[in-house]
Design goal:
two-stranded antiparallel ribbon; 12 strands
């Protein structure tokens, strides 16, 4: 696992605020994720269409070659920019990413796989997964289909069984993303953060 691509540091807003910059326990979502994964990788790449909003973090940023293609375009831009053999992709609006799960995904990846993706509650979690550079051509072919998993049939995918995921992250905290004020309230309650929304 050579690099981290933070996907979703784009114009994803809630109540007029960029979600990745919402705070939890006095730190922004993106800072929490960086604190978890940065020690495990050589390079961090932020895929965003608002680079000025993150300038204070001094990260390598990439923007979409073509807007409106969603997170898949962000992953593609990050893979192209990294030059790394493998990149861990994390969603910037899921601040409770667990180091234990990142390490478990890295351990589950095999050299012959292009994607290692966890399963949670019967669904794949493609914005918390490991991708190889071999995915680039497949993503380019399917970019217009929109969904992150659109290119999976064209590459070798290791679907990490849910029991293995639960062993590393029993509550699935890594997959708790914030899409509404209600989600944010539940998240803050979960971690004991009494900060007003």
């Amino acid at each position: 696992m050579d690099a981290l691509i933070l996907a979703g540091g784009r114009a994803r807003r809630m109540g007029g605020q960029t979600k990745a910059l919402l705070s939890l326990g006095g730190r922004s979502f993106i800072e929490l994720i960086l604190g978890t994964v940065t020690p495990l990788v050589d390079t961090v790449i932020l895929s965003t269409n608002e680079p000025e909003a993150y300038r204070h973090l001094n990260l390598l940023t990439v923007t979409d070659d073509e807007e409106g293609k969603g997170p898949l375009m962000g992953i593609l831009a990050g893979l192209r920019a990294s030059g790394a053999d493998s990149c861990f992709v994390a969603a910037a609006d899921a601040p409770l990413l667990q180091k234990s799960l990142v390490l478990a995904i890295a351990a589950a990846s095999a050299l012959e796989n292009d994607v290692t993706v966890p399963t949670w509650e019967g669904k794949l979690e493609p914005l918390c997964a490991l991708y190889s550079r071999n995915c680039i051509p497949a993503i380019e072919k399917t970019i217009d289909q929109g969904r992150v998993i659109s290119f999976y049939p064209l590459v070798r995918v290791c679907r990490m069984p849910e029991e293995e995921v639960r062993a590393a992250d029993p509550q699935g905290l890594s997959f708790f993303n914030v899409n509404s004020p209600g989600d944010l309230a539940r998240l803050r309650l979960l971690v004991g953060d009494s900060q007003p929304i």
